[in-house]
C-alpha cells in the first residue's frame, strides 16, 4: 500500500511540474488525494461529510468568490497552529511537503468543490 501511494505521489509530482510549466492548470485530484493521505488530513476531514473538521465542500462554499482564499488556506495548511475540537485545543494537521506546487494544487482542489 505504502509504495503504491509513493508511486502515486511521484506520478502526481511529475504531472504537476509539467502542468506548472503550462500555466495554471485545473487541480489534479490524484495528487491532492495523495497529499491528503500522506498528511493524515482525512482523519479529521472528508470531501462531503463533517467529521472533527468541516467537509471540504463546506470550506469551498465558505470561500467562494473570496480573492484571498488561496493565500489564507495555503497558510492554514502549511503552518503549525491549533484548532478547538469538542472544547479541547488540538494541533491542526500540516501538509507533509514543502513543495509549493503540491500545496497549491491541494488548496485549489479543495476550493474547486
Ligand atoms: C485534528 C483534526 C484535524 C486534522 C488532522 C486536520 N484538520 Fe483541517 N480542520 C480541523 C478543524 C476542527 C477545522 C475547523 C477549524 C475552525 O473553523 O475553527 C479545520 C479546518 C480546515 C480548513 C478550513 C479552514 C478555514 O479557514 O475555514 C481546511 C482547508 C483544512 N482544515 C484543511 C486541512 C488539511 C489540508 C489537513 C491536512 C494537512 C487538515 N486540515 C488536517 C481539524 C483537522
Helix content: 40-55%
Terminal-residue CA separation: 27 Å
Give the overall shape, derived from the CA principal axes: globular
Strand content: 5-15%
Q: Please write the string of helix (H) and strand (E) elements.
A: HHHHEEH
In angstroms, what is the radius of gyration? 14 Å
Q: Regions with pLDDT < 50 over 5+ consecutive residues?
A: none
Main structural class: mainly alpha
Q: Give a list of the ligands.
A: heme C
State the strand order across the main sheet. Answer: 1-2
Task: Let me know the average pLDDT.
Answer: 89
- Major pleated sheet: 2 strands, antiparallel
Number of strands: 2
CATH class category label: Mainly Alpha
CATH 4th-level superfamily: Cytochrome c-like domain
The CATH level-2 architecture is identified as: Orthogonal Bundle
CATH topology: Cytochrome Bc1 Complex, Chain D, domain 2
Helical stretch count? Answer: 5
Give the domain tally: 1
Characterize this entry briefly.
With 113 residues, the protein is mainly alpha-helical. It has one domain: Cytochrome c-like domain (Cytochrome Bc1 Complex, Chain D, domain 2, Orthogonal Bundle).
Can you tell me about this structure?
This protein has 113 residues and is mainly α. It has one domain (2-111): Cytochrome c-like domain (Cytochrome Bc1 Complex, Chain D, domain 2, Orthogonal Bundle), CATH 1.10.760.10. Helix content is 53%, strand content 7%. The protein has 5 helices and 2 strands; from the N terminus they run ααααββα. It has helices at 2-21, 29-38, 56-63, 69-78, 100-111, and strands spanning 82-85, 88-91. It has a two-stranded antiparallel sheet. A hairpin with a 2-residue loop joins β1 (82-85) and β2. α2 (29-38) crosses α5. The longest helix is centred in the first third of the chain and has 20 residues, at 2-21. The two termini are 27 Å apart. The mean pLDDT is 89. Bound molecules: heme C (HEC). Heme C (HEC) is lined by residues 39-41, 43-45, 52-54, 59, 62, 73, 76-77, 83, 85, 90, 92-95, 110.
